[in-house]
Structures are given as structure tokens and as C-alpha cells.
UniProtKB/TrEMBL annotation:
Species whose genome carries this gene: Erwinia sorbitola
Entry's transmembrane regions: 20-42, 62-81, 93-114, 126-148
Protein name as catalogued: DUF2593 family protein
Transmembrane helix recorded as keyword: yes
Keywords: Membrane, Transmembrane, Transmembrane helix
């Protein structure tokens, strides 16, 4: 038993070499995504959440968008772990996922694509754009933590 406790099996070896902005960004990605799921379940309740999943499975287009949203969720979590381990593809994958989400939410909010499962409904186009940018502001800040500081950029070289 003592041999098991002596082995160092931490998932992030060399944590002292990870820059603080990268560490904060990785934890922020994981925390916001998991907290978002908890808040969604709390807001909808289990019965309404199951009803949402059932309604999403009624048509092919809404099913594909629902599955894509789940894939994006897991891709973001995987990218967060990868970027904290020093893999450059983790931060680029997170950036690509955020751009894809931003484009879909903009197109769906403007009413150019159906179904509008993940859209923002406001009055005018300028209100939709400002609401969308405000909703994505935490993700923009995380991206800035990954790409702007010099020690973050050096960590991925």
C-alpha cells in the first residue's frame, strides 16, 4: 500500500512550470462548462431537461445540432486539459470551437438557419449582436489569457 502512495501519479506533472494565465484559463474553461450544465439542470429541472432532449430528437436537423452541441462541450473540456498539459493544439482547438459556436449562434439568432435551438431572441439586429458579444465575453477573456501574455505564448513553443 505504501508503494502506491509513494508514486507520483498527478495528471499535471511539473505544475510549477505552467504559467498562471494558462492555469487560470484551463480551470475557467472546465469550471464554466461544468457550472453551466449544473445551472441548466437546476433551471429546467430533470423532467423539463428530459423533455428538451426528447424534443431535440424529433427531427434530424435539431438532433444533429443537439449532438454537435454535446460534442463541442466535450471538445472544449478536452482542449482545456490539453492546454494545461502544454499542447499547442489545445488552445487552437478551443479558439476554433469558440469561433464555430459564435458563428452558429449569430446565424441562428438572425433567423438564417433553422432550427434555432441555441439562439438569442431580442428585438433588433444590433441588440442580438450586443447580447451575443456579452454572452461570449468570458470566452474572449479566456482566449486572451491563452494568446496575449508573453509567458503563455512561450509555454506553447
Amino acid at each position: 500500500m505504501s508503494e502506491v502512495l509513494r508514486e507520483d501519479k498527478t495528471p499535471f506533472r511539473g505544475m510549477e512550470s505552467i504559467p498562471v494565465p494558462v492555469w487560470i484559463a484551463g480551470i475557467a474553461i472546465i469550471a464554466t462548462r461544468c457550472l453551466g450544465v449544473v445551472l441548466l439542470v437546476n433551471e429546467l429541472g430533470l423532467a423539463e431537461l428530459m423533455n428538451f432532449v426528447h424534443r431535440s430528437a424529433q427531427a434530424w436537423d435539431s438532433t444533429l445540432i443537439f449532438i454537435a452541441s454535446q460534442l463541442i462541450f466535450f471538445i472544449e473540456l478536452r482542449c482545456a486539459i490539453a492546454l494545461m498539459r502544454g499542447h499547442n493544439w489545445g488552445r487552437w482547438g478551443y479558439l476554433a470551437a469558440q469561433l464555430l459556436v459564435l458563428i452558429y449562434m449569430f446565424v441562428a439568432s438572425m433567423g438564417w438557419v433553422y432550427p434555432e435551438i441555441f439562439s438569442i431572441s431580442n428585438g433588433s439586429d444590433s441588440q442580438v449582436v450586443s447580447s451575443l458579444l456579452l454572452q461570449k465575453l468570458p470566452d474572449v477573456l479566456v482566449i486572451l489569457l491563452l494568446f496575449a501574455p508573453k509567458n503563455s505564448r512561450q509555454f506553447y513553443r
